[in-house]
User: Fold this.
Amino acid sequence: MFAYRSWARAFVNLLEQSDADLTDGLAALEALASWAGSLPGAVFGSAAAEKLEVLIRQGIKAAPADAGFDSRAIDTAVSFLLFAVKKNYFCHIALIIKDVKKMLDEKQGLVRACLEYALPPEEGLVERLQQAIKERSGAVRVDLTERQRPELIGGYRLLIGYELIDASIRSQLSRLEQRLSNS
Assistant:
């Protein structure tokens, strides 16, 4: 099994050791991975890494100098991506990036949550939920996205990290149907 969490931790450690901006490092890795993934042909092995490095370095030289990104973060992201390509782990880069995001959110005291509802929530509910999440998690900030899902019939679902609170009418009807069929 691929240890993507270890790779994510290694990337964050590399950024910290080089005193690079963590957010810029993540943005650079995402952009590079997206670009490399869109290239035709295989993106693995030493030969591919050598070709990619030439293309990336040419692109960096051609980019405007005032782009505003931390050059140490970019260099770290480039080196990390090329190492993943050399080791044939580029196919796992999305999982690595996902875990890096979680680590950075944790460092910044950010909790991401998603509120799904059938009908728009009553006034003030979103703010109360954000405050409750902050209090229970100790987060500095809560990033709450909202999605309207008519298939829920009524109620809501709240996803906080991997925890799901399902208070939708659809799930209640499903549980009732299950209990009735088991009796």
